[in-house]
């Protein structure tokens, strides 16, 4: 008979037992097993991994139902899991979405709403599906309107789960696509306007190559505008001394996009953001600027560029001094206004780079400036009294449980409430 796990001591005790078993498996002498037994061992270990994922989904679901993100200063359960468990944002979102699909949910009027995908939940708990298969089923079922006939929804779920038992994620994705095509031959499940389905995302920068991947899809009108804006710049350069342009078509298009964006920023008539027109700020040490130019940092990306690229950028830009105390950029205007002037805003942004709340990844350009000592309580509008906070965490701070203070090294730090940390140890955003 299985003993119920109801306390944190129970959880830790079972986890220690499982860890002990895994340690034995980790040090097993697999090389002594015949080929067939070795494959069976791999299947057993995979089964354990899938059961572990089912537990991860269950825990994520309970964290979501308990609304812990709100009490821990995070905008969503996925953000809380990402920060607390040091997992990727995609993994965190997948766990939460899976939990919301396979676990009962709280009803607004009280009681519980049955799981939306019970067959998937049963397969997940039996350890026959991995994280990728679960994610494919959840995403596919989410594309089917909820007002479709219940028997069709049930059949679609059981079909996908049945195929997931025996298929890898690649083949299962193909089956999922065919299922949607069968249920929706006229495309009624998708928004009529393709622009509503357009998406564009910047990937992670490769520090070795200095390149960042871009992934997405655009509607016809945007593609036409993109081609019209870049086509003239994407053509091969004229031959020089009989040598043709050596750039590939993809490289020429990338260079063309950069040229178009440079031109847009140079015109300077774009919409304001945090009180300023679109711009790129480059940070250079003052002695390097006045003597021998060294490395510089681009604030939009946090990327360090070398002296040659810094010199090129300085050739065509307006140099805005970010030296503290510069007479042209006042960095303390006392109580004259609660609105942050551009000079003070730049200085705080250069220092903080992003929202200072622990675990937040919102960049400064999408955030607010916060008076550490509230302006209504006599706080001045100055660099020493300012901190970058995204809209969510700015609101959270003003609710009064969390506080921000300036540390001795001149950087903001966040103090949690006593019910999260009785010692109220200062925290910083380690992502900066």
From TrEMBL:
It comes from the Bacteria. InterPro entries: DUF222, HNH_nuc. GO terms for molecular function: endonuclease activity. Transmembrane segments: none annotated. The keyword Nucleotide-binding does not apply. Residues 343-395 form the HNH nuclease domain. Keywords: Endonuclease, Hydrolase, Nuclease. Pfam families: DUF222. This is HNH endonuclease. It comes from Nakamurella multipartita (strain ATCC 700099 / DSM 44233 / CIP 104796 / JCM 9543 / NBRC 105858 / Y-104). The lineage of its organism: Bacteria, Bacillati, Actinomycetota, Actinomycetes, Nakamurellales.
């Amino acid at each position: 008979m299985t003993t119920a796990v109801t306390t944190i001591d129970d959880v830790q005790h079972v986890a220690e037992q499982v860890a002990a078993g895994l340690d034995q498996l980790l040090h097993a002498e697999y090389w002594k097993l015949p080929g067939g037994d070795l494959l069976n061992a791999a299947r057993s270990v995979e089964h354990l991994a899938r059961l572990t994922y089912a537990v991860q989904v269950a825990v994520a679901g309970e964290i979501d139902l308990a609304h812990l993100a709100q009490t821990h200063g995070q905008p969503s359960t996925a953000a809380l899991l990402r920060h607390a468990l040091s997992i990727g944002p995609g993994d965190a979102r997948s766990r939460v979405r899976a939990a919301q699909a396979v676990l009962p949910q709280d009803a607004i009027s009280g009681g519980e709403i049955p799981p939306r995908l019970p067959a998937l939940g049963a397969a997940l708990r039996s350890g026959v599906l991995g994280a990728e298969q679960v994610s494919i089923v959840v995403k596919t079922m989410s594309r089917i309107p909820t007002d479709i006939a219940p028997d069709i929804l049930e059949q679609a779920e059981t079909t996908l789960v049945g195929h997931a038992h025996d298929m890898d994620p690649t083949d299962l994705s193909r089956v999922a696509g065919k299922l949607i095509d069968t249920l929706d031959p006229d495309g009624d499940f998708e928004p009529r306007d393709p622009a509503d389905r357009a998406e564009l995302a910047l990937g992670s920068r490769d520090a070795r190559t200095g390149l960042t991947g871009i992934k997405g899809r655009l509607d016809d009108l945007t593609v036409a505008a993109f081609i019209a804006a870049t086509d003239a710049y994407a053509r091969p350069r004229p031959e020089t001394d009989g040598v043709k342009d050596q750039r590939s078509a993809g490289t020429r298009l990338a260079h063309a996009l950069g040229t178009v964006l440079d031109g847009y920023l140079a015109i300077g008539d774009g919409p304001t953001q945090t009180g300023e027109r679109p711009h790129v700020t480059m940070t250079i040490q003052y002695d390097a600027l006045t003597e021998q130019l060294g490395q510089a940092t681009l604030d939009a990306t946090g990327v360090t560029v070398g002296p040659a690229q810094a010199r090129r950028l300085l050739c065509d830009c307006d140099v805005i001094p970010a030296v503290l105390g510069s007479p042209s950029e006042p960095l303390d205007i006392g109580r004259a206004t609660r609105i942050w002037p551009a000079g003070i805003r730049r200085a705080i942004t250069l220092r903080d780079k992003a929202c200072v709340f622990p675990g937040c990844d919102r960049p400064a350009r999408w955030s607010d400036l916060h008076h550490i000592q509230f302006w209504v309580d006599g706080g001045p509008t100055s660099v020493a009294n300012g901190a970058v906070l995204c809209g969510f965490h700015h609101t959270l701070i003003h609710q009064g449980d969390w506080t921000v203070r300036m540390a001795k090294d001149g950087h903001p730090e966040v103090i949690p409430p006593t019910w999260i940390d009785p010692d109220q140890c200062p925290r910083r955003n380690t992502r900066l």
